Structure formats: structure tokens, C-alpha cells
Amino acid sequence: MIGFAMCGSFCTYAKVFPVMKALAKDYPLLPIFSPAAYTVDSRFGSAQSHILQAARICGREPLHTLEEVEPIGPKKLLDALIVAPCTGNTLGKLAGGIADTAVTMAVKSHLRNGRPVIIAVSTNDALAGAAENIGRLLARRHFYFVPFGQDDAVKKPTSMVADFSQIPQTLALALEGKQIQPILL
What we know:
By secondary structure, the protein is α/β, with parallel strands linked by helices. The protein has 8 helices and 7 strands.
């Protein structure tokens, strides 16, 4: 089973859900939502519509509490865990070893088994405050990055976003212990 964790970069959901749907054809998926993903209504849709969409695709309701995700590691529930989109906030928490949301706890719990975590970055400060955290995770075992690059170098010069269409290839290589290349687009 593959975990598919979503954080609050709502502007990317239109690109992320089709990838989730494609992966669901090949793998059973366990959806996991951060507090923002589970509760925030935005101009990109309501939290409830996103929850329903993930549930329809995955065939199960998203996990969204610490209690729900904590057993992921002890029960060895996942072969890999995808975090897409992964916000700067979540990057910082992962780099700092903080496990205070369903997504960060799922990652922590999953890592105890030495299995891959696939990160699909989406943050406005990737080339600013979040750069250090990206670097820290790049240097750690079991973290694999979906290729990413600047999404609008003129209007948002520090913003970077993953090429979500490359999640399946990144996952396949991560399951073999390899980082897809190139990482930077």
C-alpha cells in the first residue's frame, strides 16, 4: 500500500488529484490529510470537496489525526509514503523532526521501517527560508524528491513547485532506493 499525504498548497490540487487517480489504478492508496488540507476552504475548493475526492479515488476516507496515523510504522502499513503537495511548513517540521500533524506523524511513523518518503515540494519560499530544510532532507536517507523548479521566476522569485506528473516515476525509483534525476528542473 502507498500512503498519499496532502498538505495545504491548495493551488496545486488540480494537478495532484489526477496523479492520485492514476496511481490508484496500480496501487492501493491510503490518503492522509494535514490539518489545513482537512479543514480549510479556499478559492480552490472546499475542504469537504477535497476530502470526498480523495475518498472516491482511494476508496477510503483520509486519515487526519495523530491517533489514526501513528500505527502506520508499527503495523508496517505502507511500502512508500508520498507527500504531495509538501508545503514549506511541512518541510520545516520534517527537517526538524517535529511530528505534530497527521502528515508529519505519518512520515515519522513510516520512517521507522526504513521505507521511502517521496516529497513533492510546493512552497513560495523554496529559495529563501525553506531552502535549508530542503537541503537537510536531501541529505537524509529514505527521502526522495519529485523533480521541482521555479514556477514563476519573475513574480515569485523564491517559489518552487514539483512536477507532479513525475510522481509515479519518482515512486518507482524510490522503491528501488534510487533518486530520480534530474531533481532540479
